[in-house]
Amino acid sequence: MTKGQYDHELPDGYPAEYEADVVLRDGATAHLRPITPSDAELLVAFYARVSEQSKYYRFFAPYPQLSDRDVARFTTVDYHDRLALIVTVGDEMIGVGRYERTGRSTAEVAFLIEDAHQGRGLGQLLLEHLAQAARENGIHRFVAEVLPDNRKMITVFAEAGYKVAREFEDGVIMVEFDIAPTDTSFGVMQAREQRSEALSIARLLTPSSVAVIGASRRQGTIGNALLRNLRDGGFPGRLYAVNTDTQAMPGTEIEGVPAYPTIREVSDTVDLAVVAVKAEMVADVVLDCAAKGVRGLVVVSSGFAEIGDEGRKRQRYLVGLARSYGMRVIGPNALGVINTADGVSLNATLSPLMPSKGRVAFFCQSGALGVPILADMVGRGLGLSTFVSAGNRADVSGNDLMQFWYSDEATEVVLLYLESLGNPRKFSRVARRLAGRKPVIALKSGRATQGVPVGQMVRRSQLPPATIESLFRQSGLIGVDTTGELFDVAQLLAHQPLPKGRRVAIVSNSDALTLLALDTMAGCGLDVAGDPHNLSPDATASDFGVALSEVFADDRVHSVVVIYTPPVQSNGAEVAQVLAAAAAGSDKPVVSTFLASRSVPAELRVPDEDGGAARGSIPSFLNPQYAVGALAKATQYAEWRRRSDSRIPDLPDVDTAGGEDFVAEFLQRHPGGADLDEADRQRLLSFYGITVLPAFPVLSADEAVDRAADLGFEVILKATAEQWRMRPDLADIWRHIHDEDDMRAAWAEMTQTFGVASDPGRAQFVVQKMAPPGVPVVISTIEDVSFGPVVTFGLSGVATDLLGDRSYRMPPLTTRDAAEMVREVKASPLLYGYRGSDPVDISAIENLLHRVSRLTLDLEEVVRLDLRSVLVSAQGACVLDTRVRIAPNEKPRQDTPARRLT
Ligand SMILES: CC(=O)SCCNC(=O)CCNC(=O)[C@H](O)C(C)(C)COP(=O)(O)OP(=O)(O)OC[C@H]1O[C@@H](n2cnc3c(N)ncnc32)[C@H](O)[C@@H]1OP(=O)(O)O
C-alpha cells in the first residue's frame, strides 16, 4: 500500500502547521498530519482482532489493498505540544491522529469513534490505546465527541467518573476523560458519524469512472438501458460496459462503450459499478469489484429482501461483503442515482430523462414512481442536484442521504418520498438537524390500512393518519399529500425566500380566483394583509405595476400572491415583466397563478448560468389554491426555523443507569417480558423522577379499613381490573372514603357492582390516599413500527378517547414540543381555567412529558408506558395510576460486518 492512496482532505479548522515529519520511537519516520474523516473511515472499515499481549491489531478481513497478514500498529509520538497517534501497516502509515495538550493535562482526540454497542469496536480499542498512551505520557485528561443519542454510552462514562462536558449546537457532546492511573475500560462511542457518512456518500456520487455490469447488448433490457442512460446523460468520465458474453479483445464495444467480459479486465480504475446481473450472481460481481478497488455499487438487480427470506439472506450477505471491502451499496432493487453537478453529470438510473442541474435533491423510496416523477420534474423545469432511489436501502438509507445533503452545497431543498422511515429513532434526529439548515419536503405514503398489496415490504404505522403531519412538523419537515404538492412547494422554496410572517397580500384581476385564494388562506392559517388589490379583468400591466409597488413597499405584507388571468387580447408578457421588476430584490416571497402555468414561465425567470431558473424567479401554479397551499407550507416551515426556545431539558436527577439495571434485572426475572406490578412500576419510575401516589392492594373490608386508617383518611377505594376500567356504563370505579363506615359501605357496594374476585387470593381493589382534586390527564408512549417511540398526551375521559383528542410527538421532546403537546388538544381549555376554574400547573405536565420522553429514549425495552391517571391542579401533578410493560428488545441490530468486531 502506498501513501496517498486515500483521500486526505482535512476537515475545516485544522491549521496547516500541524503537518510535520516526525521520528517514531523505533527510529522510523512518519509524516504527521491531523487525522481526516477518510482516515477514520478507513480505520473503521477494517475488522480488527486484538492480540491481548501486544498492542498489535490484526486485520483479518482487510481492505483489498491489505492482505490478511497485515498488522496495524498504533504508535504514539510526542510532537511539540501535541501527541500524535500513528497507525501503520507494515512500513506504511495509514492514519495519523493528533491529540493536543493544553497546559500539561488536557488532550483532544480528533477521531471518529465507532459505535461499539456489541463487543469491542475498533473505536473502543483506539480509545483504550489512547488512554494507555496518554497515561504513559503523563496526560490525565482528554476530550472526545459523542453524539447525544448514545445515552447508554454517556451513562457508562458518567458511571466511570468521566465528565460529560458541553453540548454543542449540532448536538455533539464533549466527554472529558480523566485517565485513571490504572486500567481504564471504555464503553461505547460513536462520533463524527455524520461527517463520515456524508463523506462516503459524496464519494459514491462523484465517480470519475463507471462500469455497468450486465451491460446487455439487447436494446430494451435493463442492463442496456443503464448503459445508454449513462452515456446519453453526458457523463464526462470513463465509462465501461461489462458483459460476460463479450470477447476480451481491444476494440470490443457495446453501445459504443468499451466492453470487457469482467470488471477485472478493465485496465483503468473503476470508482462506481452499476450492477444489473441476476441476483444469484451479484455476490461474485461484488468480489470482482472489491478486487478492482471499486468504491461504490448501485445494485439495480432485484431478487433480494423484497422476495422473502431467501432474498433477505442474500441481501445480508451482499451488504456484509461489500462493506467488508469498504464499499457502500445503493440498493439492491434500486432505480439508481443521478448527480447533475458540473463535471459529474451522472445518470446511473433507469430513467432516460435527466432533469437539468438545480438546487433540489430528491430521495425516492419507490423505484416505480421514480421514472414518472423525474419526468414530471423535467416537465416543470425544476432543477435537480442529486436523485437517489435506493430500492431496498440495505446499506445507504434515506437517513444517510439526509446527512449527506446537510453539508452538500449544491443542495438547497430536499425532497423525500417515503414509504417507511428506516431507523425511526435516527430519522427524527437527522431530519431535525437537516431541516434546521434547509427545507425538507416529505411525502409519506403507507397510511392506508385496507387493500394494501400482499407482500408489501412497507411497515404500516399504527398512528392516526393526521398525526403523521404533526410528527413531521415537529422535526421541521414539510409534510405534503401528493407528488404535485411536493413539487409545488419545491418550486417555491427553490426560488423564493422564506416568508417572515403570515400576512399575505393578493394582487389579482379575477374576483373568482381571489375568492378561491382567500378560502384556501383561511383554511391553512394565513392572514390577509389589508384588502386584496382587486383589479379589473382588463387591468393593464401598469395597473398591476401600481398595485405591486404598493404591496412590496408595505411593511405589513410578508408575502405576495399574484393572480393574472389574461384577457382575450393578452398582454401577459408585459404583466410578467412588470411583476418580475417589482419583485426583484425583494425579500418577500411571491407566488403567482399566471397563464395557467405550473413552472417558472420564461418571463418570470431569473436565468442562472446553466439557463435554469435562479433564485428570485417567480414560480407560477395551475390555480391559486396550489399557490397559496405552497405558501402556507413555506410559512409554517419558516416559523419552525425561527423558533428559538427549542431546548431539550437536562433533567439532572434522572438516573439512567439505575433504570437500565432495573430493566436488566427485571428481564432476568421475566425473560419473555411482562407487565410490571405496582412496586416495580414505582421503582422504575422513581429513577426518572416520576412519583406515583402509592396504592395498596386489599383483599377484604377489614384490610381496607386498616389500610385507610394507616394512611389517614381521606382515601379512595378503587377497583383495578382492566375490564372495569374500560366500561363507560359502570359507575365510577373508585369511591371517596371519609371514615370507616364509609369504607365498609363502599366495600359492600363495590364488591356487589364489580363482582367478587374469581381468584380470592388476588386483590381486585386498592386503597390510595386521596389526591388533591384536579383535571385528569393521560400521558403514554407508543412504539410505532414506522415512527419508533411516540409520546402522547390527552385529557382523560370517554369523550376525548372517542374523538381521538390526543397530541403526539417523537422523543426527545424540546421545551417547545412539550408546551405544544399540552396546548394542541382540543380539550386543553379545561387546563387553562375554564368557566371560572383555576388554571392548572401546566409546567408540571410538561415536566412529566419530558421525563416520560427521556425514559422511552433511554430504555428501549420499556415497550409500554402509561401514566393513565394523572390529576393536575394548580398545585402540581399527581400520578395515580400507571401501566408499564417491559419486553426483551428483539429488533435486529443494524450491524454490518464493518461495524462490528468479531
Ligand atoms: C421498480 C423499479 O423499476 S426500480 C428497479 C428495480 N430493479 C429491477 O426492477 C430489476 C429487475 N430485473 C432483474 O433483476 C434482472 O435479473 C436483471 C435486469 C438484473 C438481469 O436481467 P436478465 O435479462 O435476466 O439478465 P441476463 O442474465 O439475460 O443478462 C443480461 C446481460 O448481462 C450479461 N451478464 C450476465 N451475467 C453477467 C455477469 N456476471 N457479468 C457481466 N455480465 C453479465 C449477459 O451476458 C447478458 O448480456 P446480453 O443481453 O448481451 O446477452
Topology:
Blueprint: E1 20-23, E2 29-32, H1 37-44, E3 48-50, E4 56-59, E5 71-79, E6 82-89, E7 92-100, E8 106-108, H2 122-136, E9 141-146, H3 151-159, E10 163-167, E11 173-178, H4 193-205, E12 209-213, H5 222-232, E13 238-242, E14 253-254, E15 257-260, E16 272-275, H6 279-292, E17 296-299, H7 309-324, E18 328-330, E19 336-339, E20 346-349, E21 357-364, H8 367-380, E22 384-389, H9 398-407, E23 413-418, H10 424-435, E24 440-444, H11 465-474, E25 478-480, H12 483-495, E26 503-508, H13 511-523, E27 527-528, E28 533-534, H14 541-553, E29 559-564, H15 572-583, E30 590-594, H16 624-642, H17 656-669, E31 674-675, H18 678-687, E32 695-698, H19 701-711, E33 715-719, H20 722-725, E34 734-737, H21 740-754, E35 765-769, E36 775-784, E37 788-795, H22 798-803, E38 807-809, H23 815-824, H24 842-858, E39 862-873, E40 876-886
Helix pairs in contact: 1-4, 4-9, 6-7, 9-10, 12-16, 13-16, 14-15, 17-18, 19-21, 23-24
The structure holds acetyl coenzyme *A.
